[in-house]
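Table 4 source record.
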Amino acid sequence: MRFDILTIFPNIFSGFLSESLLSKAQKKKLITIKTHYLRDWTSDRHQTIDGKPYGGGPGLVFKVEPIFKAVSEIKRKTKNKKSKIILLSPRGKKFDQAMASKWSKLDQIIFICGRYEGVDERVADHIADEVVSIGDYVLNGGEVAAMVVMEAVARCIPGFMHDADSASKDDHAQYTKPEVFEAKKGTKWRVPKVLLSGHHRAIDEWRKKPRKS
């Protein structure tokens, strides 16, 4: 699978992509990840990628033209049939595990990472296939959100995880040694007895119970 990331800060991704399972997956050729510098698709000497919003308002908005040119060129060069263009925005549909699993069957995902006050709405209307958010909060840009979506999708690709069950298992409380941890004198934190019982059905039922937040 191929991930293409359109951003004005490509170096943000360098450490993230060169460590852990994402790095191993690239070496095994399970995935290909390319960052693209949006300013490369500008035509003026200042490499302008933003402008003041029509109607007034604070900040600057990403222009539609360089994004259109960049996405068009990436698609033309890669020629992947099962491809999806994702605009990352706090106003988008909330990303979840079902989407990660579905998208892992694609050949390519192109991420558009906005910044500043946002992206010209014509990108959402005419270029992106989906507008996606990773939560009910606002980030400085789409780069961190792209990392989240990319890692979640990559985990679902066969061969990415050493244990395939780990890719989609339900989250539940976990414990390991020591059985009893003494945080301070007279205060002991214990592993729940059911996990030490060897009774697998009882353990499964315990894990399905909602935990206190």
